[in-house]
């Protein structure tokens, strides 16, 4: 069994540390089971499962560090790997940005491990795929989907007394349904820690409805439109923005958070005042890891409060240089929303476009966080509070910063790709050309 | 993916960290590899497989990563293992084993693969149809390198990058990041067709990004390296004068002068800060090979992958506009009649060059678009029958011993013009145009119709002359419209390769490296947008 208990993990880490002759030693131990099933053209194309347990040892001499890994756990193998890490460290160049390892830390409890998910087996995956494919077969539609599940643990420890242990489970499912003539396509995506909350059938049903409703799309002129972005559409833009809040880049003058004339935009109101974004590893909806990769504790951090930039991420080196707290990047974020449903948002829209999904999003200008990409798998025209007809896909060129200033309304946040994001109604969203793709 | 169901273990793709000297240690002897392979093939056959192949792979990688005056990281990894793929009861099965030590390890993997194939045969719609392939016996192939990058001391490589960085800073850069990526795939393939193929494949990619900042305005600009990732080794970093293409800025062919390029980059990044913001509208575009490779990759390479056309990538990468009926019509105008696009797994120096692909097919060159008309796709052994071919095109690849092989893009290139034509002559006839050098932002829809590309350097062309630098440029077009607007192509004196070191495909994802050649090419009346915004 690749999922070690806290005690088993600690025993191995302590054993490794006992062999150390280095100035400092850090240990990462992780393992578990991951499985997947992929299907296309209503037939399974790949499926598999693997178990893994691996140990990474980092030795430090002065400002030189070296890492070695192993997946055998007898004393001789552990000691050999410690020596290997030490040997690599001695040969490594000095790292001028070296920061010593952390001492003992306090970590919060997170609820990221759920037994039901740990019990997933090949039969479950086959059934999950069958539920999805069967629905499409019966309606003469074509399904292509992918389910990946994992159940595992991570443990960290070092020669300064730090120790952390976190078990976690996750399931990611995505489904694209296309009509037989290729004129309609629909999509749905789900991610959960607890597989009992996942129904591949009901997710597929949404993709089926979108596929059927999106046939015979009409072309609208590109331009600025009011849009309703489903969370599956806005998530990539939001994630890209949240990954660009590194303080060092801003201090260096090469970020959207750099200030004209020097300095950073911390404390500035950058978004609509209804925009509040935070992270919280103890969230019941998106439980995260209690620690970051380098052992810093994850805690509740408000990144944007009522439109004002409240926090940025810092490496330990840069935080020390700047004399501030070293806030690590979060594993997921939560954007506060409203109480309306997606249907409510549609009902209150005079004219607009409903977007299911964005695709192939790429940076155009890091200065303004301008991105380009396209709508995909279900784009619809709304008039007088009703979906009127499907429209051809658009290419957009838009910045999430501009988008979150043009906020009209927000619905109830839902989980997507490990984040909580509300459906967003945005005015003047910039579509620059049409695409014939379905 | 082809058909049937396969076991896909997600074993360490990058490999374990090792000391740099370990990358020079020889792998296991070819005779041992043959024994390990035969054990797997015999075990598969005895368990009822109608076909089996074995890939014994040792994958070595070294990345040297720096910024300004610091070496940030040196990554040395090694990954060794064996992947066995079988057909049993008409269905694919795959199993892999890390650090296989003896015949019983590989035989066990083969037995697992057969068991998986038989179990999954129940879910199969139709049995796998594998194109026949003759055996080649014991053969070998090596990337024709002159200087193995792994033999160059780490210090020499780090010093090169630090010298490059210092030159950038001295010439006006505020920041510079530089990286050397080096890869060596030692692959052994054996199959029940009777092939035993030993290959030693090398790739290298030196690259950097220079940043210039104007603190007063709060603006910043970057300029990336004009290098290409190549199917070469350290000799790529020793440029001869004949490898350089002079002009408005120097570009490179089979040798790269990193120091020279970074000096130009530092100056150009600063120049971009005060360059004129482009006026949106229609322009004739002159696209340098350092830029055009990416447009070819996205708008020709991907849509002509048969697995995409058939729908196997529908949930992720997407499908293709280039449907079978268009190919069957024999008159689908992919581009204007001077457009000839070909796939080639043999081109010396290209990232995709190998002797045999990952299912034992000897590599070759074939036409995709001939005189503007769509004539073929890229397909592998279990799909090639769909396009009426009897032999695979040899473009099957797995990024690791633990990943299952599937159809990957061959080097797809635009043939140089048949008439003598230089870049200067090409520019001379353009009244209102933009000359684009280097690749930048890129995005294309899931059926490969609508795309948008940026670049590194943009020069305005007015009445046949270069009028100055532009910024905030991106062009949008539709694949068929774009290639039909192709008006002139320089001759083969200007033919150069660009490429991608990390092209992604599949779920779970696999990477592949692929080159695209072209000469400087003119496209008429393309829609250019201005990408400047205020936040």
Automatic annotation (TrEMBL), chain A:
Gene Ontology BP term (one): proteolysis
SUPFAM superfamilies found in the cross-reference section: Putative modulator of DNA gyrase, PmbA/TldD
Taxonomic placement: Bacteria, Pseudomonadati, Bacteroidota, Cytophagia, Cytophagales
Listed name of the protein: TldD/PmbA family protein
Chain ranges of the Metalloprotease TldD/E C-terminal domain: 222-432
Domain Metalloprotease TldD/E central: 135-214
Signal peptide: none
GO molecular function: metallopeptidase activity
Transmembrane segments: none
InterPro entries with a match to the protein in the record: Metalloprtase-TldD/E_C, Metalloprtase-TldD/E_cen_dom, Metalloprtase-TldD/E_N, TldD/PmbA_N, TldD/PmbA_sf
Family in the record: Belongs to the peptidase U62 family.
The Metalloprotease TldD/E N-terminal domain, residue ranges: 32-89
């Amino acid at each position: 069994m690749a999922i070690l208990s806290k005690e088993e993990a600690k025993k191995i880490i302590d054993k490794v540390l006992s062999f150390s002759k280095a100035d400092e030693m850090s240990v990462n131990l992780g393992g578990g089971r991951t499985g997947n099933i992929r299907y296309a053209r209503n037939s399974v194309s790949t499926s598999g499962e693997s178990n893994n347990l691996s140990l990474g040892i980092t030795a430090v001499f002065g400002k030189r560090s070296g890492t070695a890994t192993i997946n055998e756990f007898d004393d001789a193998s552990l000691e050999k790997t410690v020596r290997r890490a030490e040997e690599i460290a001695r040969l490594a160049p000095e790292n001028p940005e070296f920061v010593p390892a952390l001492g003992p830390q306090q970590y919060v409890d997170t609820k990221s491990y759920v037994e039901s998910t740990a019990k997933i087996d090949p039969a479950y995956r086959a059934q999950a795929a069958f539920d999805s494919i069967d629905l499409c077969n019966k309606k003469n539609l074509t399904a292509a989907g992918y389910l990946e599940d994992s159940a595992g643990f991570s443990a960290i420890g070092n020669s300064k007394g730090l120790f952390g242990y976190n078990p976690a489970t996750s399931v990611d499912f995505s489904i694209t349904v296309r009509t037989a003539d290729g004129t309609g396509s629909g999509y749905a995506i789900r991610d959960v820690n607890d597989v009992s909350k996942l129904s591949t059938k009901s997710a597929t049903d949404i993709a089926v409805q979108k596929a059927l409703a999106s046939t015979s799309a009409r072309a609208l002129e590109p331009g600025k439109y009011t849009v309703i972005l489903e969370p599956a559409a806005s998530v990539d833009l939001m994630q890209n923005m949240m990954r660009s809040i590194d303080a060092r880049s801003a201090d260096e003058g090469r970020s959207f958070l750099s200030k004209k004339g020097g300095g950073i935009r911390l404390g500035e109101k950058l978004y609509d005042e209804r925009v509040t974004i935070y992270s919280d590893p103890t969230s019941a909806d998106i439980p995260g890891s209690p620690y970051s990769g380098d052992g810093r504790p994850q805690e509740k951090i408000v990144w944007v409060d009522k439109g004002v930039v409240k926090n940025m991420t810092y490496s330990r080196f840069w935080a020390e240089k700047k004399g501030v707290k070293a806030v690590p990047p979060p594993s997921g974020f939560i954007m506060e929303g409203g109480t309306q449903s997606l249907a409510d948002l549609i009902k209150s829209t005079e004219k607009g476009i409903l977007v299911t999904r964005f695709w192939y999003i790429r940076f155009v200008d890091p200065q303004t966080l301008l991105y380009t990409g396209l709508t995909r798998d279900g784009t619809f025209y709304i008039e007088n509070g009703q979906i009127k007809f499907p429209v051809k896909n658009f290419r957009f060129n838009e910045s999430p910063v501009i988008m979150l200033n043009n906020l009209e309304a927000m619905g109830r946040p839902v989980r997507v790709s490990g984040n909580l994001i509300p459906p967003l109604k945005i005015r003047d969203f910039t579509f620059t050309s049409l695409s014939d793709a379905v | 993916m082809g058909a049937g169901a396969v076991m896909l273990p997600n074993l360490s793709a990058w490999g374990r960290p090792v000391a740099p000297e370990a990358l020079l240690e020889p792998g296991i002897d070819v005779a041992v590899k043959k024994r390990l392979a035969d054990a797997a093939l015999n075990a598969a056959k005895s368990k009822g497989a109608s076909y089996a192949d074995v890939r014994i792979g040792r994958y070595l990688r070294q990345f040297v990563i720096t910024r300004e005056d610091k070496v940030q990281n040196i990554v040395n990894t090694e990954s060794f293992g064996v992947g066995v793929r079988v057909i049993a009861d008409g269905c694919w099965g795959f199993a892999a084993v890390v650090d296989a030590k003896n015949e019983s390890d590989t035989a066990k993997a083969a037995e697992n693969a057969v068991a998986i194939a038989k179990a999954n045969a129940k879910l199969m719609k139709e049995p796998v149809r594998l194109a026949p392939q003759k055996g080649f016996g014991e053969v070998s192939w090596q990337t024709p390198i002159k200087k193995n990058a792994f033999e160059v001391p780490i210090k020499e490589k780090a010093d090169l990058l630090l010298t490059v960085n210092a030159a950038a800073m001295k010439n006006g850069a505020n920041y510079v990041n530089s990286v050397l990526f080096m890869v060596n795939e030692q692959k052994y393939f054996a199959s029940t067709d009777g092939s035993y193929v030993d290959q030693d494949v090398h790739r290298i990619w030196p690259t950097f990004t220079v940043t210039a900042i104007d603190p007063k305005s709060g603006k910043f600009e970057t300029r990336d390296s004009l290098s290409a990732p190549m199917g070469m080794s350290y000799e790529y970093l020793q440029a001869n004068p004949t490898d350089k293409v002079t002009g408005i800025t120097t570009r490179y062919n089979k040798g790269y002068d990193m120091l020279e390029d970074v000096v130009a980059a530092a100056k150009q990044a600063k120049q971009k800060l005060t360059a004129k913001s482009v006026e949106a509208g229609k322009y004739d575009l002159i696209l340098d090979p350092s830029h055009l490779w990416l447009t070819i990759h996205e708008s020709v390479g991907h849509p002509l992958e048969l697995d995409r056309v058939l729908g196997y990538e529908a949930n992720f990468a997407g499908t293709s506009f280039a449907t079978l009926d268009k190919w069957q019509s024999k008159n689908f105008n992919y581009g204007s009649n001077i457009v000839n696009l070909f796939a080639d797994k043999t081109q010396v120096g290209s990232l995709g060059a190998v002797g045999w692909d990952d299912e034992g097919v000897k590599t070759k060159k074939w036409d995709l678009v001939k005189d503007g008309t769509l004539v073929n796709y890229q397909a592998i052994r279990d799909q090639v029958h769909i396009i009426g071919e009897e032999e695979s095109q040899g473009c099957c690849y797995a990024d690791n011993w633990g990943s299952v092989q599937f159809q990957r893009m061959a080097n797809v290139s635009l043939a140089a013009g048949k008439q003598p034509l230089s870049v200067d002559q090409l520019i001379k006839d353009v009244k209102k145009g933009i000359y684009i050098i280097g690749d930048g932002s890129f995005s294309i829809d899931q059926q490969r119709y609508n795309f948008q590309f940026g670049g590194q350097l943009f020069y305005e062309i007015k009445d046949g002359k270069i009028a100055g630098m532009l910024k905030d440029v991106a062009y949008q077009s539709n694949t068929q419209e774009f290639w039909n607007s192709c008006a002139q192509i320089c001759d083969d004196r200007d033919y150069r390769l660009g490429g991608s070191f990390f092209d992604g495909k599949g779920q779970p994802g696999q990477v592949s490296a692929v080159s695209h050649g072209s000469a400087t090419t003119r496209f008429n009346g393309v829609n250019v947008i201005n990408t400047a915004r205020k936040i």
